[in-house]
Amino acid sequence: MSDHPFNKSVTVLDGRVTVHDESAIASPAMDKLAYTAVFGEQDERDDARWLIWEIGQSIGVQVASIHDLYLARGRGEVSGFTVPAMNIRGMAYDTARALFRSAVRLKVGALILEIARSEIAYTDQRPAEYVAVMLAAAMREGFRGPVFIQGDHFQVNAKKFAVDPVTEVNGVKQLAREAIAAGFYNIDVDTSTLVDLSKPTLKEQQRTNFEQCVEIALTVRSLQPKGVNISVGGEIGEVGTENSTVEELETFMDGFNTTLKRRSPGTEGLAKISVQSGTTHGGVVLPDGSIADVKIDFDTLARLSKVAREKYGLAGAVQHGASTLPDSAFHHFPRTETAEIHLATNFQTMLYDNIPDALRDEIYEWLRKNAKDERKPTDTDEQFFYKTRKKALGHFKKRFWDLPAESKAALAKEYEAKFSFLFTQLAVVNTREMVDRFVKPVEQHKPQPHPDLAVVEAAPDDADLSD
Question: Is the pLDDT of residue 178 over 90?
Answer without folding.
Answer: yes
